[in-house]
Design a protein that fits this description.
heterodimer; A: 334 residues; mainly alpha; Four Helix Bundle (Hemerythrin (Met), subunit A); 2 strands; B: 139 residues
């Protein structure tokens, strides 16, 4: 690969302090471009692993849906497609700001890079806020994975929502404390890093608010979570029971003497595994983006050294891609 | 749009990224035009709206085809533009597409096989009664 790059571009300018080798350039690479291309190929290989990793769950979904479509048709009514669509747009917007961050990194616009990274982190955290509302609404009415699946008609307030929010409240408080301590110790880099992350963490509460407001505004509030009043007793899960269901697209409630298909819990096992693994990837993405933010604040990215931004960007877009498929497969079943 | 991009930020033959001031970039960088980024984003949002609206119509068997087709168009937009595969080395695109080939094999062969066991499951349900099969495991 070195043959296609002219030798004089190996060290166009004296960035580094190692003679003709810029500081960002690892010693085993001849040129910045060689380093960039190698890193990028490595990232694509990692993305292959990610695709195959997720594909196991998509295969599980395909097998169960092809064998038991009735489970999916029945269970999707417990998912609010307006919230799913809202979260899709949040993730798409974060992909836009991520792609824009790569542009800023390539043009060495450090302030723009920091802004775009912060907005991307904020969108990721906001996605988790909406997800917290969705998950807790299901837990409140006993819609757990198959082993714990026990739909109930009563729901004990929103206690599960508080549990889902607790890690994020601790996260925000810890970041606020770190910002204050950094300010007090006059640690400028820490102050800016923790301060920006603290502001981004507030997006979680915007996500919470949206998760509660969107169903209300879109008139699908009655179809989501707590309003999915399961009127009947469920002592005999296999028995027929009355369920009051509202469809996503209308505010009207309809009483259905609907028989719950056998093994509905399997849908929720698949749902929690797929969206849960996706959430794990979102959290990993937030950590990777924070790492970029730290380095951007240190002004470590240069015209010939933006590979890390590009690679994290590729990862982030893949997380978006997974959601692009999860959304119709989970929320838009008929 | 790629042409306007080239005009604004001419690609240089050598890695002399530091001569052009604020808007210079390395020869191997390809900054995307803001117009293109926003255009792709708006297209993605538009397709999301279309797929949600389409879900309101009873499409029957075609529902999954329509929603997955729209999802695939969205995925293509993200891969080609946001992940700038259009301007990346073709080898990287080949590497990524090869993963999709393996996913197809994985899914196809598993699906062919999966129906084989349905009679066993049905037999088990008949023998043991549906309630027993369905009852959630006690924690």
């Amino acid at each position: 690969m070195a043959s296609i790059v002219e030798p004089e571009s190996a060290a166009p300018h004296d960035h580094g302090h190692h003679g003709d080798h810029p500081e960002f350039l690892a010693h085993h690479f001849e040129t910045p471009q060689q380093q960039y291309d190698s890193g990028k190929l490595g990232m694509w290989l990692f993305l292959i692993n990610e695709v195959l990793f997720f594909s196991g769950l998509f295969v599980a979904y395909a097998v169960y849906r092809s064998n038991h479509p009735e489970i999916f048709v029945y269970a999707h009514q417990f998912l609010d497609k307006n919230l799913g669509a809202f979260n899709t747009v949040v993730l798409l917007f974060s992909s836009l700001t991520m792609a824009w961050a790569v542009r800023h990194a390539q043009l060495v616009n450090n302030r723009g890079l920091i802004t775009c990274l912060a907005v991307t982190i904020g969108c990721a955290i906001m996605f988790l806020g909406v997800k917290a509302v969705e998950y807790s609404h299901k837990w409140d009415i006993g819609l757990y994975w198959a082993a714990r699946f026990a739909p109930t008609d009563h729901h004990e307030g929103s206690s599960t929502l508080i549990w889902a929010c607790l890690p994020f409240i601790i996260f925000s408080v810890a970041l606020a404390a770190a910002t204050a301590v950094s300010k007090w110790r006059q640690y400028e880099q820490g102050f800016r890093f923790y301060g920006i992350l603290f502001l981004a963490s507030l997006a979680f509460y915007v996500g919470l608010g949206s998760g509660i407001a969107v169903p209300a505004v879109m008139g699908s509030g009655d179809s989501h979570g707590a309003a999915h009043e399961q009127v009947a007793a469920h002592e005999q899960p296999a028995a027929s029971h009355q369920v009051v269901l509202a469809h996503d697209d209308g505010a009207h409630l309809e009483t259905a003497d609907e028989e719950m298909p056998r093994n509905v819990g399997i849908f929720f096992s698949i749902y929690y595994m797929m969206t849960g693994l996706h959430v794990v990837h979102i959290i990993a993405g937030i950590i990777a983006l924070s790492w970029l933010l730290w380095r951007a604040l240190k002004r470590q990215f240069q015209a010939e050294y933006f590979g890390p931004v590009d690679s994290v960007g590729l990862y982030w877009h893949l997380v978006d891609l997974v959601w692009i498929y999860l959304f119709p497969l989970m929320y838009l079943i008929h | 749009m790629a042409d306007t991009q080239q005009a604004t930020y001419p690609q240089t033959a050598h890695g002399d990224a530091h001569h052009g001031g604020e808007h210079a970039h390395a020869s191997f960088a390809h900054p995307m035009a803001p117009r293109m980024l926003i255009g792709v984003f708006l297209a993605l949002v538009g397709l999301t709206v279309i797929t949600v609206v389409a879900a309101n119509f009873p499409l029957g068997e075609w529902e999954i085809v329509v929603s997955l087709t729209i999802a695939t168009i969205k995925a293509a937009l993200v891969i080609l533009f946001f992940m700038h595969v259009l301007w990346d080395k073709p080898f990287n695109a080949l590497v990524f597409i090869s993963s999709l080939a393996f996913v197809t094999l994985f899914m196809g062969i598993t699906l062919i096989d999966s129906k084989e066991y349905q009679p066993d499951i049905d037999q088990r349900v008949i023998e043991r009664g549906p309630a027993e099969v369905v009852a959630p495991a006690e924690p």
